[in-house]
From TrEMBL:
Residues 193-290 form the Pirin C-terminal domain. Pfam families: Pirin (PF02678), Pirin_C (PF05726). Coiled coil: none annotated. Residues 41-141 form the Pirin N-terminal domain. Belongs to the pirin family. It comes from the Bacteria. PANTHER family: PIRIN, PIRIN-RELATED. Gene3D superfamilies: Jelly Rolls. This is Pirin. InterPro entries: Pirin, Pirin_C_dom, Pirin_N_dom, RmlC-like_jellyroll, RmlC_Cupin_sf.
């Protein structure tokens, strides 16, 4: 998914300066952003004072939206580099096209994973004949320096492994949870899991104390380590945890995001993740003037132009270990 903010700003991410080394309970409120023609998203990452969770660098939550009489999601062709996009749905369908020739409809609880590597472009849209409701999350994972120029590729996994406990079903989207590993390709130690809780659930989810974590509330309301987390918000949890208490009196849907703190300093601007102003500037120029990012065929519309760069140089900040 594209960051369609026409006033795209620099996001300074990475480095140990942003990491909390012990358990915390920091509730993050979203920023509301218009996406395309009819979709409004709640942006949880990057957030004021909290830029990343492990390698997770971007989190948008949208819906549930009634799109029965609307076109739904319509995101024109746009570029990416230096990251992976993770498409995750609870309701509806999203048709993915990319410059590799991939054409895939992603449905609820299926993983759509696009690794941009050095350069790719794609579009996302609700199919012409689509379900009434659209509800999901779009997330980005920053690629480490050793792998950020890999060949671009797209993966679709319809069957994902699950971890169960009384009242809890955890679908492992990426990485490993409680010894269960997703088939999706990862480049840093991380985890992403979709949690479904039934009414009256009291559960404790095992965690890796070396990871930092956050929980995104997709629907309902649950208490995460005793903190009520309303739908559309996210609770940052820090590091040093071996388990996570979860409780709900009603049905609730959550996403667990975590990973080893991302030590590299990165620059994230528009749909690019790089390491310097010059790299971002070159990527923008290439999208506008060269065939580097390829062409998306089949989308009924023109591709998305890049916004103007800010008048000051983009500089990564933060600390490295």
């Amino acid at each position: 998914m594209s960051n369609l903010d026409r006033q795209a700003t620099l996001s300074v991410c990475g480095g140990r300066g942003f990491v909390v080394a012990e358990p915390v309970r920091e509730l993050l409120s979203p920023r509301h952003v218009k996406l395309g023609e009819s979709t409004e998203v709640r942006r949880l990452l990057p957030n004021l004072g909290r830029r990343m969770v492990g390698a997770w660098a971007f989190v948008d939550h949208y819906g549930p939206d009634d799109i029965a009489d609307e076109s739904g999601m319509q995101v024109p062709p746009h570029p990416h580099m230096g990251l992976q996009t993770v498409s995750w749905l609870h309701d509806g369908e999203v048709l993915h096209r990319d410059s590799l020739g991939s054409l895939q409809t992603v449905r609820p609880r299926e993983l759509g994973l696009m690794t941009s590597g050095r350069a790719i472009s794609h579009s996302e849209e609700s199919p012409r004949a689509h379900a009434r409701f659209l509800h999901g999350a779009q997330l980005w994972v920053a690629l480490p320096d050793a792998h950020r120029n890999v060949d671009p590729h797209f993966q679709h996994h319809a069957d994902l492994p699950v971890v169960t406990a009384p009242g809890l079903t955890a679908t492992v989207i990426l990485g490993t949870l409680d010894g269960t590993t997703s088939p999706g390709t990862t480049y840093t130690p991380l985890v992403g899991a979709d949690l479904t809780l039934t009414p009256g659930t009291d559960a404790r989810l095992p965690l890796d104390p070396d990871f930092e974590y956050a929980v995104l509330a997709m629907s309902g309301e649950a208490k995460v380590d005793g903190v009520p987390v309303p739908a559309g918000s996210m609770l940052y949890l820090g590091c040093g945890r071996t388990e996570l208490p979860l409780h709900t009196d009603s049905e609730a849907g959550l996403m667990l995001l975590g990973g080893e703190p991302f030590e590299e300093e990165i620059v994230m601007w528009w749909n690019f993740i790089g390491r310097s102003h010059e790299e971002i500037e070159a990527a923008r120029k290439d999208w506008m003037e060269t065939p580097r990012f390829g062409d998306v065929t089949g989308y009924a519309g023109t591709r998305l132009p890049a916004p103007a760069l800010p008048p000051v140089a983009l500089k990564p900040r933060g600390r490295v270990r």
